């Protein structure tokens, strides 16, 4: 947390007015949701399936280097599409309004080792409700890193650049462990909790299926190309992991993003909740292709304000949201991907060491934000 | 190994190849009407019948098991991107050579699906289908004398029967506002010309509404006839009363094609279908809280309408979104966010 509260200039009434203006933006999109949006997600899903099928088909001949390259590139893109623009957003309920049981948050499953059901709980409920609240939102460093001065330093944090890199490479496993709250649940007392064991079993089943598909069945189907296909699927998973880890780091870790104290959200109003989402998220600027490949998480601020609006509408929402940032004199944190990734990594390195100088006691946010 | 067992093994293996998707997710991309797929149909043509009615020609998927004349089929149509299900009578004969079926739809005021099908449906569109169902059919031994009593779009199941089964002695009393509103008018007059039908055609704008009590004047032997009636509630209520008064209620078969209208109010009785609990709820308390207080195990999440962790099927009635005031009515596949929805009249949740 920065020493100065960047929202200190807003009165309670202004915050509630901001909330009403954001509600109006949301209502406008909901009223205009329709056939075009439905056609969009169906087109993306169909394109992803065709790309995955074609890429895996090409990889049957991965013994030939050009086939390996094209197949691996295609499969990487297909896996990224599956996780980002399709899976993440469907599991948020962004497309539930279509009432299509095949494209619904309650029935969807994704190409990921964490079962959709568990991810929805830790991501939609915990992270999106308690965004950037220290001690409540485990996305803040995933429980293995310190990403804000206000988080307590521990010698374990010395290694956090290494932990972060390993986590990036095997991100889907990191997410699965995180959704299981392994750190907490591996304690002796909790380990035998039947509910935890059932969830761990579900993750085990999902991992087995994913591994069997990517590292046994498809390589076997490739016959003489067994080893090269194995390398190709491994590479595609690695690329997908590095990419999604980078995009997600950009959402909440870059410099300028605010974190909040547990007590600051007590009795939080709708307007204050919105304000926390605005200050606790960061965007990525770039081309249409960039927005698409990030699953429109490049519009992280808009996504956090309205997690259930269809992703294809965030770009138009962003124009209006940005205008509100200007109106209320708030900082809209955004930048190109390399800059934001660098900023996030710099923080990971910087905060691996204890705070340099004794922290100036910041004026606590709850005084400003919460009507006592 | 039998071929069925072999096929099931092969399918299991394919599932390992396509996980987390199913092989059918890929097959649906190229062949949505194949055997084994969810039942769907493709709209092949839309023929205008009257100003506000059209016949939709549908090629059903391989899984279609056929229908009995008079039955209806539920169709799932995407209107403005939202899948809505409605039931329409099948109007084609069972013997149709090309295997297509037709439904005939009259656009009703504010009817989302009917207006979409009549005015905007395009050939090539894939829709969802259910197997045909319904008891409004002729018995196996056809009765000697039949009366069809219909009004408006109530003619549709009867047209299916007329086209399907030739009867020796059949009278039809049909009402519509004006001549040009009579669906299938030329088909009916062709049947009359062929002496296959005796038709009493009433235009209510000029002739006034049919008085069921005075049916005897139009069809003197009405009481001897096995009767099938379909039309607005008023007509059917009057017919049931009339037949009952003459002690021949068993000779009357009716089909009500308009569902009971949901009256959306403030609050109401909430039923939790699986647990069998019923409680009174006001129009401001989220159904999630209502359920929890009643001791029903409700899924929940953020409790503010963002995470969709609490969505629950709405089996009947209506709920109001506490954020927008929007009313959602029960329909197949309708899930509501219980944390931001309150009862808008009596309703039932699947919990």
Walkthrough of the structure:
The complex is a heterodimer of chains A (372) and B (351). With 372 residues, chain A is mainly alpha-helical. Chain A contains 16 helices and no strands. Chain A is 60% helix and 0% strand. The two termini of chain A are 21 Å apart. Chain B folds into four domains: 1-30, no CATH class; 31-129, Elongation Factor Tu (Ef-tu), domain 3; 145-255, Rossmann fold; 268-349, Roll (Ubiquitin-like (UB roll)), CATH 3.10.20. Chain B is globular and about 65 Å long. The mean pLDDT of chain B is 92. Chain B is of the alpha/beta class. Chain B contains nine helices and 17 strands. The chains are: A mainly alpha (372), B alpha/beta (351). Chain B: Its cofactor is FAD. Chain B: Pfam families: FAD_binding_6, Fer2. Chain B: Residues 36-139 form the FAD-binding FR-type domain. Chain B: GO terms for molecular function: 2 iron, 2 sulfur cluster binding; metal ion binding; oxidoreductase activity.
Largest interface: A-B, 46 and 28 residues
Number of strands of chain A: 0
The count of domains of chain B is 4
What is the tally of helical segments of chain A?
16
Descriptive tags:
heterodimer, A: 372 residues, mainly alpha, 16 helices, disordered C terminus, B: 351 residues, alpha/beta, Elongation Factor Tu (Ef-tu), domain 3, Rossmann fold, 4 domains, six-stranded antiparallel β-sheet, six-stranded mixed β-sheet, 17 strands, 32% strand, globular, 2 iron, 2 sulfur cluster binding (chain B), 2Fe-2S_ferredoxin-type (chain B), FAD-bd_FR_type (chain B), oxidoreductase (chain B), 2Fe-2S (chain B)
Secondary-structure blueprint of this entry?
The complex is a heterodimer of chains A (372) and B (351).
Chain A: H1 12-32, H2 35-59, H3 65-91, H4 116-129, H5 160-169, H6 171-179, H7 182-185, H8 188-191, H9 194-221, H10 226-252, H11 270-279, H12 288-293, H13 300-305, H14 314-327, H15 337-350, H16 365-369
Helix pairs in contact in A: 1-11, 1-14, 2-3, 3-10, 4-6, 5-6, 9-10, 10-15
Chain B: H1 3-18, H2 23-30, E1 40-50, E2 53-60, E3 72-79, E4 82-89, E5 101-106, H3 112-120, E6 126-129, E7 145-151, H4 155-164, E8 169-176, H5 185-193, E9 198-203, H6 204-207, H7 215-218, E10 226-230, H8 233-245, E11 252-255, E12 268-272, E13 277-281, H9 287-293, E14 311-321, E15 327-329, E16 335-337, E17 341-349
Parallel strand pairs in B: 7-8, 7-10, 8-9, 10-11, 12-17
Antiparallel strand pairs in B: 1-2, 1-6, 2-5, 3-4, 3-6, 12-13, 14-15, 14-16, 14-17
